[in-house]
Amino acid sequence: MDADLAAVSSDLKSVAVRSIHHMAGGSRAEFDDVVHPDGFTRERKAAPPSARGEGPAAFYELACWLRAAIEDLSYEIHHAVTEGDLVAVSSTMRGRHTGTIVFYGGQAEVTQAFAPTGKTFAITQSHWFRMKDGKIIEHWANRDDLGMARQLGWVPPTPLYLMRCARLKRQARKRLPV
Hints:
Protein name: Ester cyclase
Strand order of the largest sheet: 1-7-6-3-2
Strand content: 35-45%
Pfam families: SnoaL (PF07366)
């Protein structure tokens, strides 16, 4: 690989890795540096309406949604590789579930709410980024959601936990605009 291609590859990896760390603690302005104005994440379909758009603001809203439910959120990066305009990053996400996590459906309806458990978790993830003009234009991820659910006590749930989640789901639905 010649020096110019190696530099571009390194820059793209840096942008992708920074964006993952921004999810844990980046400011709104920091997302401007890494997300293209037309950038979007395929993960937005389960996110709140404010995080379903495009551009840095939507990515920041997604980060705020995660941070509201997960204290001490952090990512350990294991590998980052590029091929053309595609960057793949292998990571471990860690945190403590201290706030309600509300998931949404295709029409932004509340589909599930998980009451805080106070438990910690560590799950592997792979993130995929398509880049344009040196910024993220598209993102998607593969996560160990079942592993997270088991570590947080969502699976198998106790009857009491199911009742708490059902109450929180009703409350979240009431807060949605009509």
